[in-house]
Amino acid sequence: MKRIILAALTASALSAPALAQRTPPPMPAAVDPKVAELRDAALKDDVAWDIVEGLTTEVGQRLAGTEAEARARAWAVAKLTALGFQNVRIEPYRMPVWERGTETAEILAPFPQKLTLAALGNSGATPAAGLTGEVAVFPSMAAFQAAPDNAIKGKIVYIGNAMPRTQDGSGYGAYGTARFTGPALAAKRGAAAIVIRSIGTDHHRFPHTGTTNFPAGVTPIPAAALSVPDAEQLERIAARGRPIRMKLVLTPRQVGMRESGNVIAEVPGSEPAAGIVLVGGHLDSWDLGTGAIDDASGVAITTAAAKRILDGPRPRRTIRVVWFGAEEVGGMGGDAYAKAHAHERHATASESDFGADRVWRFEVNLPPAARPIADRLQTALAPLGITRGSGLGGDGTDIGPTLKLGTAAIDLNQSGWDYFDTHHTPDDVLDRVDPASLRQNVAAWTAMLAVVANAPEAIDPVTPR
């Protein structure tokens, strides 16, 4: 026992100098008490809920370029003005508009039954009486790409996928190619039409719409997404080994050029030369639900946070809130904004377009001299359960064109565990928004704006990600 005690004491003595030589962890950056106060007060915010509830109730669905989106812009101007923002205005632009028509599908053989589906944006149309054909079933995009052209030509192509549920939403990019590029590839290979398994993680009988694109010279074919249960039903039927015949009726149409626009509001800063802090989300939505998750929540969160700064001392930098138009159908609003404001100095850009679940992580793309801002953000956001990620910030369709100009980026990442259950479906409605999670978002964005808009560091241009 004495030998054991002596050995332990010796080991302790030997390790003490080594322990003393270790570099202590850096002290966390101090949080300005005013930032903490703003953050904590925002946990009781009701402005964001008021915006989401009002926009989805009084306007509803807001397909880009339609009369409904125009009503949404007028609603936004009235709301932002009433909240006290300055320089509230609409910046219009023109865009091509696609509208949905009739959409039905049924299996005629070997087991007759109706299916639930939704046309994809930019889909071509069937004849008014419909299109009937044999279905070529491919369980994945890879299987479709590997198939010979004679297995596709003249057929109604089906492409499956198995999008996983992830916190960061990475499954969308990995499996979304069936929607993003599948229809154009099927058209090039002579398919008569295409249906895909919805790009979603749910098992509700709600199809997920979304845009697909046909390059110049490629004639659009009818293209639609089956609800996940209907897609799985089709795959089970195919597993029986008998030919499948399907009838599709899809009658969307391109209606030509119409007006869309971005709605802009500001919290003027005391030092305009320090740059603009750009935040926002997109005002338009798909036409199946009321766009509560995608993206009334985003414009509400960023606006409510900016309102909290508006109601306090004037910030150093101007905060510009933008409700972008026409994001869902190709990001026209982001492109128009970047072109109209390329001459202005933007310090940072950030957008909220991933629903209303809690923010769990933040990431930045800041120049070296401004990196202390990220340290202060880490401390300010930690009480909300938000960690600092190791990736490079700079995500978002609407702010993407502005980021390409060299604008620094700050991302507040929301959890995507449930987002793709309702994304682009008829189930994207108000009761999918959790008020407590919405308030946590507002608190996070309030803290971010309070830190960034008043940061003493210069925020110079960066290399885009």
Which percent band covers the strand fraction? 15-25%
- The counted number of beta strands is 16
Overall pLDDT level = 94
- Radius of gyration from CA coordinates: 26 Å
Q: How are the strands ordered across the major sheet? A: 1-10-12-11-13-16-14-15
Uncertain spans: 1-20
Instruction: Provide a count of the helices.
Output: 15
Based on secondary structure, the structural category is alpha/beta
- Overall shape: it is elongated
Specify the helix fraction band. Answer: 25-40%
- Major sheet: size, sense and barrel closure? 8 strands, mixed
Distance between the termini: 62 Å
How would you characterize this protein structure?
The protein has 465 residues and is an alpha/beta fold. The protein has 15 helices and 16 strands. The protein has helices at residues 2-21, 33-42, 47-58, 67-82, 141-146, 170-175, 177-180, 182-188, 228-239, 292-310, 332-340, 371-381, 400-403, 419-422, 435-453, and strands spanning 86-99, 103-109, 113-115, 117-119, 131-138, 156-159, 193-197, 223-226, 245-250, 253-267, 276-282, 318-324, 346-351, 359-365, 387-392, 408-414. The strands form two sheets. It has an eight-stranded mixed β-sheet, with helices on both faces. α2 (33-42) packs antiparallel against α15, α3 packs across α10 and α12 (371-381) packs antiparallel against α15. It is elongated, with a radius of gyration of 26 Å.
